[in-house]
Amino acid sequence: MVTARAGLVAAVAGSLPQVVVAAPNGKNGSSSILSFVDPLIGTTNGGHVFPGATLPFGMAKAVADVNVENQGGFSTGDVTGNITGFSHMHDSGTGGSPSLGNFPLFPQTSCPDDLIDNCVFPIQDRAVPRINGTAEAHPGYFAVTMENHIHTEMTVTNHTALYRFTFPQANSTSNSTISPLILADLIDLPLSRINGSASVDAKTGRISGSGVFSPSFGIGTYTSHFCADFSGADVRDTGVFMNNRAGTEPKNVSVVADGTNNSPDILPAGALTRFHAPKHNNQILARVGVSFISVQQACHNAEREIPNFDFAGVRAAAEKAWEDTLGVIQVKPGGVNESLQTVFWSGVYRAGISPQDYTGENPLWKSSEPYYDSYYCIWDSFRSIHSLITIVDPYSQIQMIRSLIEIYRQEGWLPDCRMSLCKGHTQGGSNADVVLADTYVKFGKMAAEYGVDWKTAYEALVNDAENEPANWDVEGRGGLHSWRSLHYIPTDDYDPYGVGPFTRSISRTVEYAYDDYCIAEVARGLGNHGDYEKYIGTSEYWKNMWKADQNSSINGTDTGFTGFLMPKYLNGTWGFQDPIFCSPLLNFTSCYLNPDGHETYEGSSWLYSFFVPHDMAALITTMGGPSTFVKRLDYFHESGLLYVGDEQGFLPVFQYHYAGRPGKSAERAHFYIPSQFNDTISGIPGNDDSGAMGSFAALTMMGIFPNPGQDIYFITPPFFEEVSIRNKLTGKTATIRNINFDASYQNIYIQSAKLNGKTYTKNYLQHSFFLDGGVLELTLGRNESSWGTRPEDIPPSLSTGHNITGYMF
Ligand SMILES: *[C@@H]1O[C@H](CO)[C@@H](O)[C@H](O)[C@H]1NC(C)=O
Ligand SMILES: *[C@@H]1O[C@H](CO)[C@@H](O)[C@H](O)[C@H]1NC(C)=O
Ligand SMILES: *[C@@H]1O[C@H](CO)[C@@H](O)[C@H](O)[C@H]1NC(C)=O
Ligand SMILES: *[C@@H]1O[C@H](CO)[C@@H](O)[C@H](O)[C@H]1NC(C)=O
Ligand SMILES: *[C@@H]1O[C@H](CO)[C@@H](O)[C@H](O)[C@H]1NC(C)=O
Ligand SMILES: *[C@@H]1O[C@H](CO)[C@@H](O)[C@H](O)[C@H]1NC(C)=O
Ligand SMILES: *[C@@H]1O[C@H](CO)[C@@H](O)[C@H](O)[C@H]1NC(C)=O
Ligand SMILES: *[C@@H]1O[C@H](CO)[C@@H](O)[C@H](O)[C@H]1NC(C)=O
Ligand SMILES: *[C@@H]1O[C@H](CO)[C@@H](O)[C@H](O)[C@H]1NC(C)=O
Ligand SMILES: *[C@@H]1O[C@H](CO)[C@@H](O)[C@H](O)[C@H]1NC(C)=O
Ligand SMILES: *[C@@H]1O[C@H](CO)[C@@H](O)[C@H](O)[C@H]1NC(C)=O
Ligand SMILES: *[C@@H]1O[C@H](CO)[C@@H](O)[C@H](O)[C@H]1NC(C)=O
Predict the structure, then answer these.
(1) Centre of ligand 10 from the C-alpha of residue 581, in Å
(2) Mean pLDDT of 6-26
């Protein structure tokens, strides 16, 4: 591990409290929670985690940017990845190109021969290796030392990054004094700049500017602004650079679209301030405010949030914010090692990074509603992130729901993916439908009291289901005419009504079906029985692509399982796509949004054939009954067909619950954690996707994985002796306690359970447990038992009577 977590851990080692308690004053216990957060987990091998300094859902996200695997700014794996600058906004865990990273600062200790022009300016030329092992990351803090011995620390407020550069001492072989130069570059991580301008104030050294950039997985452009002030050294001179030349005149620089954007040849340009030797400790502080509104607002944000460059104070406030967020959870480890505690707390932490709260920073419309951005992407986040936020920070979840509804009001569509104020690409269905329904059924009434307008939300849901947009690559759904007339998305669809990637007919069909089920739930709650019946009907359309006699072979050997989702043409005849094709570990050729893409997205027919979250009873019958279903699910997990590093892999870990085998879900949970989720820098199996992998680990280890969109949590034994969660809105605490717990996980099978002292046989919980508080006691043993196995103990399915209704109006 390239982490320097050791210091903090040492501070609590030996006195590790048995119960890690978040004391109300944020002292003792809660600071030991933060020592179990390692932001460097998932910073190599495709995790793309942003490991820098941020507040919960904060807009400012500061980190060192490197020139390899830099989706999240910094990465740890390839030690030859060099630092190109320090920038102030990022996204976390994304799959495609890097995001944001606009206007990086880059410090140099002195310019050779004391000539500004002899410092290095272009991003490709100036990159400096970091010293291996110096990266240090904690909630609200990040630090790293470059090989030129400049040590850079950073912390943040909501819209402002604060950097502290410590320059190396001058020594006899160099000049006797140093004269640091700090530049601000009109560039971003994906090198997407279209145009930009920067200026520098000769007196104060303030550098400010603006630029137009492209989003990392979407359409359109966005404009961003920054304002950098310095403290700790007197200004010596100021100027600008272009290409590899710099001078003290003029004081501003402007670059227009030069036709080379998205190219490494993009014209280097920016402004700079040079200082006399720092006054104290060879340190210079740089405070960078960011804004999407104006330079003036960027400066104002910085002045308001960090008036006096108090690094320690800003860092302490950031830690306090994280203690408040994480501190609603208490864990009694019961002897479980620090490594697993780190996996857990780091997972909860990463689910608190995105989406970002850009309220007050949205130039697109005027509104008093909150504005969150970087729903990146809801196709990923609906499966665990929003369910975890709902439990630990329901107020923020409500703000996010309000923001989604406002995006619909203003732009006419709910987003499916959104970043940098732009529309992102849709991967499957219209999955905001699931996020809205999830909140509606779990605590919709309370959300309404906090300002969620369910009437407009419902309008947005119906819009997704009924109206095909001109560009369904970025909103809504495609193929709606065929959906209505044929009741599936044909593989050779005739769809002149809108434009999008005409691929993924199987995965879109099963996702649209589930999205419609979610709409039906809300319709029912709102008393709209006609719509309820209609969308329940369309939620069964997955059956229309089910080819009952289809079998599947691997390397010529029949797997023995029959019945798979298969391509189906307009004329009603079947097509063929090998059921194992698009399994990430087997054959994954053009399984993204490629123009030559296939009928399943980022997963095989094997995988999508399990995706009927609302009617598992019908699926189990279709697959030949519970015992065949369990064998098939086992095979799916054990053959390499399931890749848990893609979010569709999460639900199958727990689908045994529907076959009356909750013990097998617990086995699978332990199969994947820690083998695939651990506390190494490569400790997550796929892109974190805004905290998806983190929230999967956290929910799984708490023993309450959801079936998102429904008021259901599958009960499995928590990975700790006891877990408690205080609901921030109701103030009530829900506790799950394992009896006969053993830290070596021999006893992972529930023998019996009690909820608030009464025998409890259902193998699932509802959200009321978290709202009302209570105690669930699970008595564990070494073997599967009859607990939670009877038909009446199994979570409800559409075809067995869907009695879970959540809050009704
Ligand atoms: C909190 O920590 C301080 C200093 O480490 C210690 O003296 C004090 O006893 C602790 N308080 C509790 C309640 O653990
Ligand atoms: C990083 O810098 C070192 C030393 O200058 C160089 O050898 C290496 O190729 C650079 N790596 C990258 C990815 O730029
Ligand atoms: C050393 O620094 C001083 C002022 O910072 C400058 O005047 C002088 O030219 C420098 N000398 C060298 C050799 O860089
Ligand atoms: C960097 O440090 C890590 C762990 O501290 C070590 O495994 C790795 O080999 C080091 N790399 C180099 C190039 O020294
Ligand atoms: C950051 O913004 C959030 C949301 O508006 C607010 O609740 C929080 O107090 C702010 N944090 C700080 C440290 O100002
Ligand atoms: C002295 O300064 C030079 C030039 O900055 C640097 O290369 C060298 O490593 C420094 N020596 C020491 C002992 O710090
Ligand atoms: C920068 O680009 C934006 C968007 O393309 C455009 O509106 C603006 O006029 C451009 N500004 C300059 C100075 O070229
Ligand atoms: C199929 O056969 C190839 C070549 O023998 C082998 O590499 C691969 O692992 C096999 N795949 C499966 C799923 O058994
Ligand atoms: C149905 O359509 C498919 C795809 O265009 C075509 O290959 C097949 O021959 C058609 N079958 C019939 C019976 O028309
Ligand atoms: C993967 O599947 C594609 C499309 O079916 C096929 O063309 C290719 O040969 C397959 N590759 C391997 C290694 O099986
Ligand atoms: C940690 O997780 C990664 C990613 O899933 C995995 O490749 C690695 O084998 C795991 N390490 C251990 C020691 O289990
Ligand atoms: C659903 O409710 C009905 C009537 O209250 C009841 O008879 C039935 O058993 C319930 N079904 C489930 C799965 O709970």
Answers:
(1) 8
(2) 34
Ligand 9 pocket member 494 (CB < 6 A):
no
pLDDT digits (tens, 9 = 90+) for 367-426: 999 999 999 999 999 999 999 999 999 999 999 999 999 999 999 999 999 999 999 999
Burial of 729 by CB count in 10 Å (0-12 exposed, 13-18 middle, 19+ buried)? middle
Preceding omega of 250 cis (within 30 degrees of 0): yes
Pocket residue to mutate for ligand 9, from 505, 566, 573, 577, most atoms within 8 A of Cβ? 573
Report whether pLDDT(15) > 50.
no
Give the list of residues 6+ apart from residue 220 with CB closer than 8 angstroms, or none: 214, 422, 423
Q: How far apart are CA 696 and CA 686, in angstroms?
A: 12
**Residue 428 in domain:** yes
DSSP state of 574: B
pLDDT at 688: 98
Residue of the CA atom closest to atom 8 of ligand 12: 801
In sequence order, the 6+-apart residues with CB closer than 8 A to the CB of 31 are: 12, 319, 323
Give the pTM.
Answer: 0.93
Summarize pLDDT for 522-538 with one digit per residue, the tens: 999 999 999 999 999 99
CA of 678 to the centre of ligand 4 (A): 19
Domain shared by 576 and 653, yes or no: yes
Q: Which of 111, 113, 115, 175 to mutate to test the pocket of ligand 3 (most atoms within 8 A of CB)?
A: 175
Ligand closest to CA 211? 7
Ligand 2 pocket by C-beta < 6 Å: which residues? 67-68, 80-82, 127, 129
Nearest ligand 7 atom to the CA of 194 is 2
Beta carbons within 10 angstroms of residue 745's beta carbon: 17
Identify whether residues 365 and 317 lie together within a single domain. Answer: no
Integer Cα distance of 143 and 166 in angstroms = 11
For residue 102, pLDDT beyond 70: yes
Residues 274 and 193 in one domain: yes
> Closest residue (by CA) to atom 8 of ligand 4?
132
pLDDT class of 79 with cuts at 50, 70, 90: low
Residue with tokens 């999460």: 650
Residue 331 belongs to a domain: no
Evaluate whether residue 414 is within a structural domain.
yes
Would residue 16 count as lying in a domain?
Answer: yes
Which pLDDT score is estimated for 561? 98
